[in-house]
Amino acid sequence: MSQPMHVLEMFRLNGQTAMITGASGYLGTAMASALAEAGASVVISSRQLERAQQLAALLPSPGGAVHHAVELDQMNEESISAGFRMAETLTGGIDIFVNNGHEAIGADWKNITAEQFRRQLDNLTGYFLLSRQFRDQVVNRGSSGSLILVGSMYGVVGSYPQVYDGIGTISPAAYHALKGGIVQLNRHLAVCWAEDRVRVNCLSPGPFPSPAVPELLKERLIEKSPMKRLGTPEELKGALIFLASQAGSYMTGHNLIVDGGWTAW
After folding, report:
1. Using one digit for the tens of pLDDT, what is the confidence trace for 121-138?
2. For 61-112, how does the pLDDT look when each residue is reduced to its tens digit (9 = 90+)?
3. In degrees rounded to 5, what are phi and psi of residue 240?
């Protein structure tokens, strides 16, 4: 009878390979660092290969992990296939995939065009195609894997329009539709792929505004938060590693919301 793992060992990713899209973003950078800090070899993807290489070079390498960079545009099916194949070639296989990248939009419900709305939802197509690429290579290798889709609290609740009043564009309707679709896609893929030994979970951040967000908007978000403060990127690290690692081995189909209590109202 094997000995149970020590709890801290369960969170370690040594010997595993993780891939993350959107790693150059405000939250993506912290998530990529978390995977590396936990011991994983990390593949950074970007639409610009040089940008991905720069990010990969900055990651820590405890235990001698080797990081890689690939060019991948999540809005282009051919680029998705080519980028993922390159990641497989470089590493021999991906154990953890963090589906985080998406193309943003600023137009709200009052002025968004049909083409812009469809373009925003194309991000969801990219999420699905990347997820399927990940699942197929896990199955082909006879292995197991952890897939993490990055959603949002705005995939489960509406925003407060008054928070944005007089500051700028309100939270875009197309973004809410996209993130709600990601949350539901997570549930569906989890039950479809459970017997394939591919766990599928969603990580949904709450109010984590970047430094570029106007101070007045930050103040209004704080007023709506039960904890009366905003989240910092580092506060997503533990949740991500829990979902990626053996610590979350019996969790699939879950949407883990890290929002300071925002959706508990």
Report:
1. 999 999 999 999 999 999
2. 998 999 999 999 999 999 999 999 999 999 999 999 999 999 999 899 999 9
3. -65, -50
Rounded to two decimals, the pTM is 0.96
Contact residues for 38 (Cβ-Cβ < 8 A; gap 6+): 11, 12, 13, 14, 241, 244, 245
Distance, CA of 240 to chain centre = 9
Among candidates 27, 30, 62, 66, which has minimal Cα distance to 208? 27
Residue in this structure with the two tokens 């990969």, named with its chain if needed = 56
Mind giving me the DSSP string for 11-59? T--TT-EEEESSTTSHHHHHHHHHHHHTT-EEEEEESSHHHHHHHHHHS
Give the count of beta carbons closer than 10 Å to the beta carbon of residue 57.
Answer: 10
What is the widest separation between alpha-carbon atoms in the chain?
Answer: 64
Contact of 102 with 125, CB cutoff 8 Å: no
State the Cα–Cα distance between residues 213 and 254, nearest whole angstrom.
Answer: 30
* Domains, the chain, ordered by start: 7-264 (3.40.50.720)
Are the C-beta atoms of 74 and 124 separated by less than 8 Å?
A: no
Provide CB contacts within 8 A for 96, sequence distance 6+: 13, 16, 17, 18, 19, 35, 40, 145, 146, 147, 148, 244
Over residues 113-117, mean pLDDT: 97
User: CB-hemisphere CA count at 13 Å for 133?
Assistant: 26
